[in-house]
Amino acid sequence: MQRQLHLFGDAADPAERSAPTAGIGEATNLAAWIESTNTSDDALAYLAQAAVSLAERHPVLAPADALRWVLGLHERVQGLLQGKQRLRQRRELFGIQSGLLAHVCLLLGDLQQADTAGRYGDLAELAATEGGLSPAPAFSARAQVARWQNRYADAAVLAAAGSDSCNSPSLRALLACQEANAAALAGDRQRARAALERAAAGLCPATESAWSLPGPRFVACRVSVALHLGDPASALREAEAAERPRSSATWAHLRVSLALAHLMLGSPEGAAWAAEPVFGVPSQYRVATVVSHLAAADQLLRSRRLRGSAVAAEMRERIRVYTASSVAPAGAGPP
Fold it and tell me: How far apart are the C-alpha atoms of 26 and 31, rounded to whole Å?
């Protein structure tokens, strides 16, 4: 009878087979390699807390100063990622790095470096995916940058996508506000109002940070949406009743929004009064949010009905000086 052949050699009696063996040294080396790491759980906890602390200081730090701190921490994490960690630790590092990259994106947007900011936002999403975490902070930062680039429909889509993947109630409310603001700018009234209702329903007490929605920031959002939807009277009431926020940028945003409401209601004198505190903000705190809103005020001040107004002319000059002194210094280079 012809001998039967098998895929892995001739058939043999199982009893005649010898058990596969591996050297003890080889197994030991493999275990050592799996367990080897250039960091520790304590170090990871420190880095994570440092990233959270920087996000919490975001409302009060000058953007250029915050950027230096965030980039410094980013470089430390990046240095660790060049080496070897246990799989769990590597995922944690990617998660920390994702938050830092999103924060860099947000800060570069504040400093009017939108193109570079967008690239950091893309990297933040990639790092979050690699770490198996929600990319919601990356989407929030990218939505903000898209808004400064006047890509309102894109900003609304990015904010909605971030909300869909978000596991933080406060960040989800912030993303809903971003979607509402962008949708209002794009002229989508129904979407803007629906998103604002979701933000209100999800509003909850939270530590103020780059990724949260404290009360004054929510008011600033409602005021902006009302202005974009052509309801200056509601915006005026909201802005006048707002509490003084901890963030100088949010405070300036509210005051300029109040000025815009006065202009839309035909009062350059009221606008000049509302904007007065903004012009005294130190140059290092003059973020893109405020510059953008002042540009909108300048457009209204140039209207035909205000051409003979000395108050309007003076306010336009103050806006010009403010904007010229808010040009951002060189920040992060291309990632």
Answer: 9
